[in-house]
Design a protein that fits this description.
Number of helices: 3
Distance between the termini: 63 Å
CATH class of the largest domain: Alpha Beta
Order of helices and strands: HEHEEEEHEEE
Number of domains: 2
CATH architecture of the largest domain: Roll
Shape: globular
Strand content: 25-35%
Structural class: alpha/beta
């Protein structure tokens, strides 16, 4: 009888310890630090993301002329790395998305700079309105990476 009681207490203590360990010692959730794209021409791609998309550069540690770091959100960056042999074909579903105050104004700016854009279905110079009311357009950077521009709020 004492042996059964001892084993029962031991099992209960093990269960309590296991439950406590799993609740108090779980790993912290991962968070996005940066994305990176591999490009043919660093200047051309850098100009696209700074002058067209409107991202700001941030200091990068390499200073080798092959890297550019851009701020995409607080504590989140995009790293552009030169060295790709050629531009490639990418699927639209694999893309980066940036939000702006007005998709219509952004599209007008693109038109003024002769930069093509399309809606989600591929119709030139058209704006998609998602079921949630968010407006979006799609364009490609100099290396063919797809970029979505939308007016989603935080």
């Amino acid at each position: 009888m004492k042996k059964i009681r001892f084993v029962t207490i031991l099992i209960v203590l093990c269960l309590i310890h296991t439950a406590s360990f799993s609740q108090n010692n779980s790993l912290p959730k991962a968070r996005l630090n940066h994305t990176a794209i591999y490009v043919v021409d660093l200047k051309k791609s850098g100009d696209f993301y700074t002058q067209i998309i409107g991202l700001d550069t941030v200091p990068e540690p390499f200073h080798d002329g092959k890297h550019m770091w851009l701020q995409t959100a607080p504590h989140i960056q995009m790293h552009i790395i030169q060295g790709a042999a050629e531009a490639k074909t990418y699927y639209k579903n694999q893309h980066s998305c940036f939000s702006v105050a007005s998709v219509k104004a952004f599209a007008k700016m693109l038109t003024g700079k002769n930069i093509s854009f399309e809606d989600v279905k591929g119709t030139a110079n058209a704006i998609t309105i998602r079921v949630d009311g968010v407006k979006q357009i799609w364009l490609q950077d100099p290396d063919g990476y797809w970029v979505e521009i939308n007016d989603a709020k935080d």
